[in-house]
Design goal:
With 191 residues, this protein is an alpha+beta fold. The protein is built from 4 helices and 7 strands. The C terminus is likely disordered.
């Protein structure tokens, strides 16, 4: 009985540690997206001005937080205008991706949306995506800012967790709804 109780306590504690790590990653990405969305919305809205302004901020963020894989600005038509260090080498569109469609067609500003898993169009890596809708002062849709979370990094982290000989973990084998709640219980986003 005492052994079973200790196993239950250890399991709950391990789950809390894993949850906290994932939550911290999501929170950092969400704060970065808020800063990027505000940066895009607070200046001239022509694409070149947005790319220049966003580029400076993305480079500063990536220098401070290198674990953030990819940050992008995608225009209203779904074209990736800026990714990490500059414009992509060729045209890429994500207009068909779930997170872009949800952000584009969303009825309000300020919500972080989640998408994936998808194979990255540029990286070719299995990834989850966080995105925020960006609008101008008149609430017209300008595009989205997005952050990429590589499934390989999630798997590498989970692989460090010893769950015993019979245990295992699967980060994202199929599409499932996950809702992230704010402290007051309001939904902050879902994928």
């Amino acid at each position: 009985q005492q052994y079973r109780h200790q196993v239950e306590v250890d399991t709950r504690n391990l789950a809390k540690i894993v949850e906290r790590s994932v939550s911290d990653t999501l929170t950092l990405n969400e704060l970065v997206l808020i800063a990027l969305a505000d940066n895009v919305a607070d200046g001239p809205t022509d694409p070149q001005a947005i790319v220049e302004r966003t580029g400076r901020l993305v480079r500063a963020i990536k220098a401070r937080y290198p674990k953030i894989d990819s940050l992008s600005f995608i225009d209203r038509d779904g074209r990736i205008l800026f990714r990490n260090d500059g414009p992509p080498e060729r045209d890429y569109t994500i207009a068909d991706r779930d997170y872009f469609i949800h952000a584009r067609d969303g009825d309000g500003d300020g919500a972080t949306v989640f998408g994936g898993p998808h194979l990255g169009r540029i990286s070719g890596k299995a990834s989850l995506y966080m995105a925020r809708r960006v609008t101008d002062a008149d609430h017209r849709f300008l595009g989205v800012v997005s952050a990429t979370i590589l499934l390989d990094e999630i798997q590498a982290f989970l692989a460090t967790v010893d769950v015993g000989a019979e245990g295992g973990q699967r980060p994202a084998e199929e599409h499932r709804l996950v809702v992230r709640l704010l402290h007051d219980g309001a939904a902050a986003g879902a994928f």
